[in-house]
Amino acid sequence: MKNEIKFVLILLLVSVSNAWSQKSFDEYYNNYLESYKSNDLVKMKAESEGLMTYYSDEFVGFYFNSYYQILKGDLNKAQASATQAMNIQPLLEYAYYTQAYIDFFKGNTPNALKNLEWAMQLSTFQEAKDILEDMEKIEFFTKKDLSVLKNQWLKYYQNKTIDVNRSFKIDACVSGILTSGTKCENLDSQFAQFSSMKNANPLFQKMLPLLKAVTYYYGGNANESIKQFENFIEISKNFAALLSKRSYALYFLSIIKNNSYNSRGALVTINEALAEYAKLPYASLALANMQMHKIVVLKMLGDKKEEKLQTAFQLEQTAKNIDNDYFRVKAYNSVGIYYFMEGPQSEMAKGTEYITKAYNLAKTVNDKDLTNEVNENYALVKVKQGLYADASKINEELAQNYLKDKKYIDAQNLYNNMAFILYIKKDYRNAITEFEKSIALAENIKKELNAKQKLEYMNNVSGAYTGLILCYKETNQTHKLFDLQERTRSGYLKELLKNNSAVANVKDAQNMLKDDELLLTYSIGKPGEIIITAISKNKAEIRYNYPIDNLIAIKKNYTDRIKKVPSDLNPYMQDYNVDYENGKLIRYANKESNFKKEDLLTLVQWTRDVLEHSDKLEYQIPQADFLHFWYNLVLLPVQDLTAQYKNVIISASSELNYLPFEAFINPKNQYFVSTNNVRYIPNVTVWKMVSNRNYSDDRKSVIAYGGAQYQPSGNVKTTVRTIDDFYKISDAVSKKISQGIYNFKPELEAIGFGGANYLAGTLKEVQYIGTLSNDAKVITGQNMTESNFKKANLSGELKQYKNLIISTHGFTGDVIPEFSGVMFSQPNGGDGKEDTFLLAPEIAKLNLNADLTILSACSTGVGKLYGGEGVNGLNTSFLVAGSNSTMLSLWSVDDASTALTMQLLFKNIIQNNAKPNVVLNEIKRGFINGDFGERVRSPKFWAPFLYSGR
Fold first, then answer.
1. What predicted TM-score, i.e. pTM, was given to this entire model?
2. 23-31 — which CB contacts under 8 Å span 24+ positions?
């Protein structure tokens, strides 16, 4: 055990992270060698453990400790340390020596000789005596004979089998790649030399793709890097010596995915990385880095707060195990911000405590980036304490540091924080300045992203846009407010439409409107806080509503019931500042804090549930309460305007996209559609685009698909159980789409998508439509396959029709937004290369020239809600495909009433050349008035279908 090891180590220490030991690596190393020479086992133990703790990503401490444990006779601990050393550096000789000794003492001589031979292949020792000295020392302490190993080792030198120069060369190559991404010349040929040896170590063949992947990554070739990482992960399965490198590769892949705003895929992959690392016996800096990365990914996702907290606690434990203050600060900061911003009100004090601990400890670490990160949260503590000037000073200094270092994402977040501090102080003018700085940075960052990445990025930074909208509302800047509303919805759709026209302004909206039309563009500030830009042909103004008492009242009357508040606490719950959380009463400082985002989401979902079952007697009272509530919240502020303008165009926001405004009930107990015609647009920018997208008049009237024949319902069983399972499917889907693959049969079946019940009404529906015009075409039964539909698209047949109707089962996906679509017929032998489900990514690639597309199916009008965009679902896909408008549904539709709606709609469209949106409103009023019978007067039957577009 000579100084030659040190030469190897110098190469490995290039990328060592901060260590918090008072002793340097060299001191531990040299002290161990001294204790080795003097046979001081106590000191060997202490110095090796110091290296294991403070230099946990280096193999040396674990190698030294394994050797010490062999001397001591504890083979279990020796094996644990040898395993860690081998995983850190599987292509260095040292761990193979200790593994050979361990195997020999366990009676497995063949394995011992095999590991000794692999050590020989990698040996950098010029003479046999260096390793013989190690063996003799083992014999001295254990009183056991190692002659078999000693004799074999001597033979290697006698036969001149060892090539030291070759070993040094490959070591320098591997170390340079893994520590700094340095490209290694002749990598393949060097590895070929080792792989072609007699009894070659199989890890050479396994490690080569990993080294290539890292080289490609640092060379900027992400695509090739991903291929090589994935190759390594596949071929290295079940190799215990590569657990660390497998976690390393998965960690890299997770970073690549997260940098591409594929946070769900990043979470799946970092969880796989951590699962691989969990099989190793010791914590390390690598583990801490992976845990910290997972926290970053969870922060991007936003909906897994508890998991983020648990990961922060795990990071805190890892930091303790490796005695690392840097990661202690990271852990304290993450735990603190959870309790301060996301946890229960009763535990906010813990947030201040943890953030303060992080702040004080960060001062001792002397890391600029870490200090900046902690100071961001420390400024929030100052805000909570009412020290606004201190908070602003901290943030301004941080923002300037970030801009200087070109850390624009961090600077954007800082300006956003500063703006909200000023907003809380009601200093709206200065808040506007800071918000505008934040958004200007965000807009510059977006320029470097593709459409999908912009969608995810806007979801993360939408708070800044909302804050600025609130400030414009407070300062009554109507035109600027509307401009921002336009920029925070349907930007992804605009990008996919590949239209470079400018974002619409108030004047554009007024030019689009007719004299009898009113445009209402909505935004939500705090949960339940409604901001409306109301625009008519000659006027634009801001309307506002935030009835906090009404919001809390309906919450307490309905949604609080799921909390199962003990009856003896009911008197306290009447206080609007009081809530019940985690089994105890909470008193908020103000009423606004007692109505949260989850309360609004619950109200939306309950309203949808009530509407879907509104034909049942027990739902009548809650239906009336909810529909009155929503009218009062979103339409009462503009009631004077809707009384003047019969035709109302709505551009909804956030969760409001999931509700039918026409079903809201006014104070006179009238549905909104009873007094006004209602239609929807994504935003004015897109409305203007599709209004200017004109097709020829000589197109045929309608092509209709219906009466699909499915495999039996329940013919597949779901294998997905948890949200993480869904994320794995989502990641697999994203990968397929990136490769241009659109058959998702395995993924669809995994979540239970298989057969379905036959819908007799869909056949009657499209057969009737076929009778309305000589040029109408109807495709039904086994002819209604996905492959035939795509053939009609490729041949140009679909674009020959003004109207497209698909009457079948429909579905939308929130967790996996790509899994929104419609079912086609499912032949017994399958449908060739198709999976029988036409999904959103496939729909967007269609070539339509349609004025209107109707999906006469269930729940096709909802989708995944993105902050800064709106709902991304089938409406987006059909508009991108070329349809100028759509009619989709918000919930599961009734077969008979849907058929009636479609028959009446198309009769008027085709035979009377009527406008679809006008006809749809008339049909809804017919249902309400009882024209089609008492049974179908409920909103369940007429409210789900919404018209959107031109």
1. 0.83
2. 23/50, 23/54, 25/51, 25/55, 25/58, 28/54, 28/55, 28/61, 29/60
